[in-house]
Amino acid sequence: MAAVASCGSGAGSTGSAVATASKSNVTSFQRRGPRASGTNDSGPRLVSIAGTRPSVRNGQLLVSTGLPALDQLLGGGLAIGTVLLIEEDKYNIYSPLLFKCFLAEGIVNGHTLLVASAKEDPANILQELPAPLLDDNSKKEFDEDVYNHKTPESNIKMKIAWRYQLLPKMEIGPVSSRFGHYYDASKRIPQELIEASNWHGFFLPEKISSTLKVEPCSLTPGYIKLLQFIQNIISEEGFDGSNPQKKQRNVLRIGIQNLGSPLWGDDICCAENGSNSHSLTKFLYVLRGLLRTSLSACIITMPTHLIQNKAIIARVTNLSDIVIGLESFIGSERETNPLYKDYHGLIHIRQIPRLNNLICDESDVKDLAFKLKRKLFTIERLHLPPDLSDTVSRSSKQDLAESTKRLGPGCGMMAGGKKHLDF
Amino acid sequence: GRELGMLDSLLSLGGLVLLWDSVEWEGRSLLKALVKKSALCGEQVHILGCEVSEEEFREGFDSDINNRLVYHDFFRDPLNWSKTEEALPGGPLGALRAICKRTDPGPVTIALDSLSWLLLHLPCTTLCQALHAVSHQDSCPGDSSPVGKVSVLGLLHEELHGPGPVGALSSLAQTEVTLGGTKGQASAHILCRRPRQRPTDQTQWFSILPDFSLDLQEGPSVESQPCSDPHIPPVDPTTHLTFNLHLSKKEREARDSLILPFQFSSEKQQALLRPRPGQATSHIFYEPDAYDDLDQEDPDDDLDI
């Protein structure tokens, strides 16, 4: 009967034929067709934004920091919505490089950038970004650098300790995937890449007039302006989902340089108990709130070696998600130590977050050193000899001598310095 | 040669130059010597005088140098109580900004006498921001800057300040000169921080002549760390040893070809699989004594299993 009906309709619409066919269907299972556009009742869809990937540990969406070795140490990358704080080295030579690699990674992946600085014009910072090493060239460059680095002794196969040859090596080879890229520190990024990218700059001296009356509020005016700027960009460009008709979602990469230095109007580097000692911590708190509700990731470099009050450093560490400290050997006695002769400094990973997780993804390698080769910035494991008791006591004697020299003729308040000695 | 020129070329690098002096080694004479040098080079020189009077600062300069100096006096009336026409609006910082605004093309040197005075009277952050703005006027890269290069020379007394302001100013400065010396000879330790390069430092011995010109010297005979007595040659501990520390070539080859016990190589495999060539390579000699029972029967034969 149904067949007669369908024959009778002849050149009827296929819709009616399908309807009659489905009514006589035995099973109630229906094949779910692919949805054209996302509706509210569709299943969970993975957000696929260029340059991001979900973490294998906890499913967080990760972006690359610009240095694949650093990504590996942080458990895959920087999670979206988190803050990466870099404690600058003493002469501020290596931390700008990490900052620029982060921004360059954003440009290569097509993310939107927001660069804030009180020292340099953001346009100048962008001009100085390192050039990416693209897939064909990267393997050649990498191998050439590795070959130059290897000394003849290391080529001898291990004979007695032959089991150690089976251990995995620390350095990873060039990855020709879309997640992490290598950068050439000696070349500048091509101009057309910068022009094709979408970026916003915040240069403090332009935004704040010099005769601004400082109101007795809790945040330094520079910080207030920066937070307003970030919030405007996030809501205008829809990073927090407030613009639902935006088809292509993107990630906002925020970079803030030298936060906490006197050029931002903050006096934590100048005095131990300044008038606005909570300004920076409040800024970080509000910033993290903004980041958590939007698709953005932030890198901040901070001159923590200048901060006088150690309690502020501890609070800042707690308010950030990932904290990495750079310690360069320039000017210290380690420069001439033969142990460190191949490296330019140490990297200390001070904190890794626990995001939706009970444990954090820390690597078992704690002694890390970096070096800036002619083109590449590499992070390697440092093999330290056992710490003998002589050297331990000698370094503590040096600290004491240093602190007594600092006390000098100054009065108690000015001579706070490194050690808080109570009289 | 090149090293002697570092103190000379301090101001040609531009930016903020800090001159740290102390009670033993005063810095105002070096400041005046550098001011005189840049005035003689034809640069515009502005002095912000806060610590000593104008007469005292100008003392020792001859008249043509004095005519080239533009002196802003903040010593006589620092709080502007007299409210006269000459009072400069905005205090020392206002004067700094005004200097920058009306800069004609050409290098400018601003000498702050002293920056310590400014640091004690003004908030540190405001001062840092003003100094950064002044010394980075020509911050466009690759631009030969129609506005001249600005050098700011600040005299600082290191005992007056705690580590906070010292660190903050040091991080802003392009060059830091610390005065010291031994045995009546003054030295300047110059630390040069270029933006993306390693800092370089150098020690230069000098003296200031009565007319405030700079006399660079080689320094006293014993300059760096005392080295060991050259008459005694360094002792080589590897001589006269009772054991051998080095390997000859043959020994090295023999060592390299040695097969280690835990390595399973093909030779070892063959050696284990090969049947033994002769069994009777060892004998056992036994002498029975009185208590031995040499019974050839097998004691297990009695068992009935």
TrEMBL record, chain A:
InterPro entries, sorted: Elongator_complex_protein_4 (IPR008728), P-loop_NTPase (IPR027417)
Record's keyword annotation contains Lyase: no
Which GO terms of the cellular component aspect does the record hold? Answer: cytoplasm; elongator holoenzyme complex; nucleus
Pathway named in the protein's UniProt entry? tRNA modification; 5-methoxycarbonylmethyl-2-thiouridine-tRNA biosynthesis
Segment forming the signal sequence: none
Q: Which Pfam families does the record associate with it?
A: PAXNEB
Q: What is its main location?
A: cytoplasm
Q: Which Gene3D superfamilies match?
A: P-loop containing nucleotide triphosphate hydrolases
Q: Where in the cell is it found?
A: Cytoplasm; Nucleus
Ranges of compositional bias, category Basic and acidic residues: 396-405
Q: Does the keyword Chloroplast apply?
A: no
Q: Where is this region: Disordered?
A: 23-45, 389-408
Q: What keywords are annotated for this sequence in UniProt?
A: Cytoplasm, Nucleus, tRNA processing
Q: PANTHER family, per this entry?
A: ELONGATOR COMPLEX PROTEIN 4, PAX6 NEIGHBOR PROTEIN PAXNEB
Q: Which family does it belong to?
A: Belongs to the ELP4 family.
What does the record give as the function of this protein?
A: Component of the elongator complex which is required for multiple tRNA modifications, including mcm5U (5-methoxycarbonylmethyl uridine), mcm5s2U (5-methoxycarbonylmethyl-2-thiouridine), and ncm5U (5-carbamoylmethyl uridine). The elongator complex catalyzes the formation of carboxymethyluridine in the wobble base at position 34 in tRNAs.
Subunit-level organization: Component of the elongator complex which consists of ELP1, ELP2, ELP3, ELP4, ELP5 and ELP6.
This one is known as Elongator complex protein 4
Gene field: ELP4
UniProtKB/TrEMBL annotation, chain B:
Please give the InterPro entries that the UniProt record associates with this protein. Elp5
Where does the record place it? Answer: Cytoplasm; Nucleus
Any single biological process term in GO: tRNA wobble uridine modification
Q: Name one Pfam family in it.
A: Elong_Iki1
What is the originating organism of this protein? Macaca mulatta
Locate the compositionally biased regions of type Acidic residues: 289-305
CDD domains in the cross-refs: Elp5 (cd19496)
The protein's name: Elongator complex protein 5
Q: Which UniProt keywords apply?
A: Cytoplasm, Nucleus, tRNA processing
Q: Superkingdom of this entry's organism?
A: Eukaryota
Q: Gene that codes for this?
A: C17orf81
Q: Which family does it belong to?
A: Belongs to the ELP5 family.
- What pathway is this protein a component of? tRNA modification; 5-methoxycarbonylmethyl-2-thiouridine-tRNA biosynthesis
List the lineage, top down: Eukaryota, Metazoa, Chordata, Craniata, Vertebrata
Identify one Gene Ontology CC term for this UniProt entry. elongator holoenzyme complex
Which stretches of sequence are listed as region Disordered?
A: 269-305
